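Recall from the previous lesson that a structure prediction takes nothing but the amino acid sequence as input. Here we apply that procedure to tRNA-2-methylthio-N(6)-dimethylallyladenosine synthase from Flavobacterium nakdongensis. The sequence below is the only information supplied.
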Amino acid sequence: MEEKIIEENKQGTSLVTDKKETNQKKLFIESYGCQMNFSDSEIVASILSEQGYNTTQNLEEADLVLVNTCSIRDKAEQTVRKRLQEYNAIKKINPTMKVGVLGCMAERLKEKFLDEEKIVDMVVGPDAYKDIPNLLKDVDEGRDAINVILSKEETYGDIQPVRLSSNGVSAFVSITRGCDNMCTFCVVPFTRGRERSREPESIVQEIQDLWDKGFKEVTLLGQNVDSYLWYGGGLKKDFDKASDMQKATAVDFAQLLDRCASQFPKMRFRFSTSNPQDMHIEVIEVMAKHHNICKYIHLPVQSGSTRILEAMNRQHTREEYIALVDKIYEIIPDISLSQDMIAGFPTETEADHQDTLSLMEHCKYDFGFMFAYSERPGTLAARKMEDDVPETVKKRRLNEIIDLQQKMALERTKRFVGQVVEVLVEKDSKRSDKHWSGRNSQNTVVVFPKENYKPGDFVNVKITDCTTATLIGEAVGYSERMN
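The prediction returns the following tokens.
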């Protein structure tokens, strides 16, 4: 499992959906953690919409408050505990309000939540969202409501998610759930269960629905998208027990991606997260073949040292990772890559750290998500390894990694200056309401004067300047995709 991308500016946003006139009850739902949690909150809102709930952004008026939680890092858990104390103050004013904890933290702490956090009425793990209506009945009847059973089948493929806090332009579509990679630093296999893939037809139907509603970009989402494998249902690890017919008609990620890009030629596609051990050359060839698959791969590595990768139980060496990156650049020279990196994993030496820096210089990443190692309870590393790298050393190494990434990011962004790039307009620029903000195929943010363009337009932008993370330019007209 990869350290999922956690977008700090989205943490704790409460979700808004279209109101159903007949719904009388109010749901306040906020999400923390990775894109998968935000995607799951859309599924929950859809289930509860059928139970008479409209979403509200006013916590004080809510009948039901749900917080979708993350267990990746201790900071995420502490934020949620603080938030629960804030709910408690409001519950004193509105005693009928019910509070539920969803997601990975619910799965990790289970009954402890009901004991420790007296205000929590309901604890629901990532595979049990369809059971929420029954759990609400339990709460009404004065019983503790908890379902954290991990499923071998649940993919929520039959639920059309309600799009929450959406810009109406780009959306996430979940294609796998769970993870089989037992990375020693990661809690996800224990909180989200074993890996299973979603039926391809249901994925295509969801994309069709988004296209009909005017969306222009879809990110196919999974803990580990490259190992997508549909052979009629069931766990990925049981594929070897499948019948000859099931094996012959199985659909892998390259085939799914090819189908999506072919069937929706004017829709732009991204995917996340990729695992180096499962990234097949076929996927890269499919990316090269289709102009509507974005030239960007998030390819977490975690460390540049083979010894540390082995301690992390990553299923690849430094050399294998570098060979994969070289192959990607060979097939798609203008691609952007991003990394996840952990500084100060147990037993990491100065030589291991230098290996990480030299790997980064070789791979020339455009972006990075970099963290100091923090021990997560329940993981193999927490049970078997002493967290023996001093905090001061972790911080220094992390800063060196960040400094190098910043330097590379500026170099990588500068390559676009003077070029014309295609941008999908998403929203107002953060800095100025006279400028649009969108992203190019390589996932770099582009800002340009609004003129008469609008969100959802594909616009060709001539790049005149840049910062480390943003391209600045002027529109030169609609891109071919608009015809």
